[in-house]
Amino acid sequence: MMLLFIIVCMLILAVGYRFYGAYLGRRLELDDSRPTPAVAMNDGVDYVPAGKSMLLGQHFSAISAAGPIVGPILAGIWFGWLPAALWILLGTIFIGGTHDFASLVASVRHKAASIGELARQYMSRTSQVLYLIFVWFALVYVIIAFTDITAQTFKTMSASEALGPGVAVSSFLYLFLGVGLGLVLYKLKIKLWQATAVAIPLLMLMIWWGTVLPASVTRSLMAIPLKSWEVILLVYCCIASLLPMWLLLQPRGYLGGWFLYLTIATALFGALFGGFSIQYPAFNTEGFVSLFNGKPLLPIVFITVACGACSGFHGIVSAGTTSKQVARESDTRPVAYGSMVLEAVVAILALVTLMILPKGDPLLKSDPNFIFAKGLSGYLGQAGVSSTLALSFALLAFSTFVYDTLDVCTRLARYILQELFGWKSMAGAVAATLITLSLPLFFLMVTREKGYLAAWPIFGISNQLLASLTLLAVSVWLIRTGKKALFAIIPMVFMMVVALWALVLQIRPFITLLLSPRGASGMKLDVMISGICGVVLLILSLWLVAESCRVIAAARRDGRLAA
Fold this sequence. Notes:
- By secondary structure, the protein is mainly α.
- It has helices at residues 2-28, 37-40, 52-64, 67-79, 81-108, 115-122, 125-153, 164-186, 192-210, 215-222, 226-242, 249-273, 297-304, 312-320, 332-355, 368-382, 387-421, 426-446, 452-480, 486-514, 525-558; strands spanning 285-286, 289-290.
- The chain contains 21 helices and 2 strands.
- Strand 1 and strand 2 (289-290) form a beta hairpin.
- The protein is globular and about 70 Å long.
- The N and C termini lie far apart (54 Å).
């Protein structure tokens, strides 16, 4: 049964890439004769053309992070594995892939402009400001959720030993390895295959070294409080977001891509040939309500599984950093749509690590990252790898995914503030970075441990709203330039409806408590923060939709739809 499930899922995704991806390519009229921004505006810092294989790895590792692992496992636990699997497959092919592909092509066609700039050009300055503010809020939530999740990984304990310190050491060595790879590639001009042949074994050595730390080092690192790890990670985000692309983001992302491929291969091989059976129920609901926590299946499954099915964050990466590195327009299909399909593979394999557990298994009370790591380590254990090394590899794989998103998020948020305020100097870049990181720092310091659980629902909602707003901007671009836009409009409407529906459900407890006799005084801090942010996101979304409708109506009235 498990073997059949995985084979069917992989075939569906492959067919979707081959046929629907090709259909989208024809609709978007890809043309390699057009010089891309990376080629025409190469500055050696932000605009740097990258080969298709390097860019695929960098983009894939940037968009993947913890989302396609945490979301599917949470949704599977809450509602059963079948609703999560169906949304991953259908969402990826028809919505997420469309969103990622179209946003990357739109940005490449407009000198690697952000979607906010696209909104200004084809809608209005008001639309641009609203969109950029919304994106900035969404990115802040990504940084909050993934910083906290990574810090949790550094404190991981197994039944008999502390694994977190080894993962922390290995992960920071991985970052230094990324910088070294960038130097040998761009300064020493070493060929990519030669550098890769050295870097991958070094990465494996670093993982092993993290498992044999002296006991004194392990105790010292384990004594570091969770909040301190969060501060350290935010400092890393600050530094990494200001470094040139070639020095860290490109090579580390490429290296992270290889780690992702290795993780996928391990999980796929173990799931296919490990002899595991499906034990968790296909549905864990009574009607359309979760038996686990009472949440409604609709629309919550659509915002719990964001990355892995559809994620607005992907469009920001596409139009923020990736579009500045595309060497040829034809590369956009494997890089954008292909990465979305690969992320769906990660999501399905993450879901499998839940499906092999019986409903009452104590592991279900663990964090999703540990459920994933235990499943992956079980596969490696069958191949004769020691349990400590296998679990360390799995946990490092998880934290690696997150690193690749954290610094990209911070860089993108920096771009947005610089675009909003016109800050073009290095001082402006530093100021924008510090402002961006101040909110995650405040949230993480004042909330309880595992604050990401409070942030996750609003993160998922903002992510899906962001996807719908990105598709809205892309649709307006297509309409205003006389192209057919139905392939973008249909997924845009669907995502807008389910995300706004979920947002109303999310802020309802906040509004109820606020209007109660005790008011805000009887409200938990995380409820207050999520509620306020939810209201802001709702207002921004509705305002932006109204603005786009006004612009399209005016253009239709004045005969400017094909401007």
